[in-house]
Amino acid sequence: MEIDRRAFARALIAPLVVLPATTPAAAVALRDLVPGGWLIGVAINQNQSDGRDAIAVDLVTTHFNAISPENLLKFQSVQPQPGAFTFDAQDRYVAFGRDRGMAVIGHTLVWHSQTPAWVWAGRDGGLADRATMLERMRTHITTLVGRYKGQIRGWDVVNEALNDDGTLRDSPWRRGIGDDYIAQAFAFARQADPGAELYYNDYNLATRPEKRAGAIRIIRDLQQRGLRIDAVGEQGHWRLESPTTLEIDQAISDLRATGLKVMVTELDVNLLPQAGPPTRGQPPPGSNPYENGLPDDVQQALAKRYADAFRVFLKHRDDITRVTFWGVSDGDSWLNRGRANHPLLWDRQRQPKPAFDEVAKVLMAK
Ligand code: G3I
């Protein structure tokens, strides 16, 4: 067969010459661009950890070195009924990450949401007493953390324990056990896997200085009790304008001043207006502006937003240990909820967006 030698030579050099300059998206993997020692993570759903969503699996495998379970390790997924632990899909999630050499994150042990009512229920229909609730907490943590001992890198031990004003949220955990429920959870987790990293995780720590102060009080209390806590997670459910880069910068500095490492654990950028509940199954009028796609100016604003955020993260490269996106692509995001949101780096067709290119560029220039 006759070979067109010039075409052959062009084909050989084309990817080398053209791709890195014009389409970093096609040529780079985020995990290769982040500072040494950093984890760059993504939350995955069960379709992904079970391998059914092949395109997403490919993106996760290529670009990330850490995974978080979007829902699988929450209380209601693991122990929906007293003592009835389910571990099949959970085992596959852990194997997914370990097979790929990734850091596998556990989310979350103690939270007021996605926790079945029986956990807090007393015999008389009221709240369980302290001893009963503590025992349920201990059993849950010991069984779950113990099962993945040495396999899960770190746990969000307590999630969202604070109100926006920095006071402790009046969750059933707190009402049943008392303010020390947080310390108890950290102590149980430590006993179950002394090698696992333990985290406190919350949102609005950048936008609300008073809430951040509350998180710092929780951290100091754990430290004074001599309990293990390794890092604090600001979830990073952000919008285009809020928090400002200055606020992000300040939050990282303040949290780091506790001596803990800082993580951005659930990063996404909500582009939709606040909206009331759907009427007759439809989003309220005007609340779904990007149903048919993202206009170019918003697409560029999102790209700039991510680039600015990553510049701040890089400024704090020695303070931050992990940045995790809350979902693979726009279609996967919890932020859709009946509308079309566009909060992540890959679009609904699983194509990289300008935001991906900008993040890659910022990381490449570091
Ligand atoms: O699995 C059921 C399915 O069987 C049912 O048909 C369907 C009908 O609504 O619901 C499905 O469960 C949903 C579940 O996600 C799995 O998709 C729940 O309704 C829904 O409420 C749940 O939302 C999750 C949310 O946490 C619950 O609070 C989101 O996926 C998840 O992304 C989100 O993650 C949280 C973090 O854990 C903590 N920080 C905030 C973050 C965003 O809310």
CATH topology of the domain at 65-238 and 252-267: TIM Barrel
Number of strands: 9
Taking all Cα atoms into account, the compactness measure Rg is 22 Å
Question: Uncertain spans, ≥5 residues at pLDDT below 50?
Answer: 1-21
Biggest beta sheet attributes = 8 strands, parallel, barrel
CATH class descriptor name of the domain at 65-238 and 252-267 = Alpha Beta
Bound molecules: ligand G3I
State the end-to-end distance.
48 Å
What's the tally of helices? Answer: 14
Strand content: 5-15%
CATH superfamily name of the domain at 65-238 and 252-267? Glycosidases
What can you see in these coordinates?
There is one protein chain. The protein has 366 residues and is α/β, with parallel strands linked by helices. It has a domain at 65-238 and 252-267: TIM Barrel (Alpha-Beta Barrel). Helices cover 41% and strands 14% of the residues. The chain has 14 helices and nine strands. α8 (130-147) runs parallel beside α10 and α13 runs parallel beside α14. The longest helix has 20 residues, at 296-315. Ligand G3I binds next to loops.
Reconstruct the topology from this structure.
Layout: H1 5-22, H2 24-27, H3 30-33, E1 39-44, H4 46-49, H5 54-63, E2 66-69, H6 75-78, H7 88-99, E3 103-110, H8 130-147, E4 154-159, H9 172-177, H10 181-192, E5 197-202, H11 209-224, E6 231-234, E7 237-239, H12 245-256, E8 261-270, H13 296-315, E9 320-325, H14 354-364
Parallel strand pairs: 1-2, 1-9, 2-3, 3-4, 4-5, 5-6, 6-8, 7-8, 8-9
Helix pairs in contact: 8-10, 13-14
The protein binds ligand G3I.
The site of ligand G3I has 8 residues, from loops.
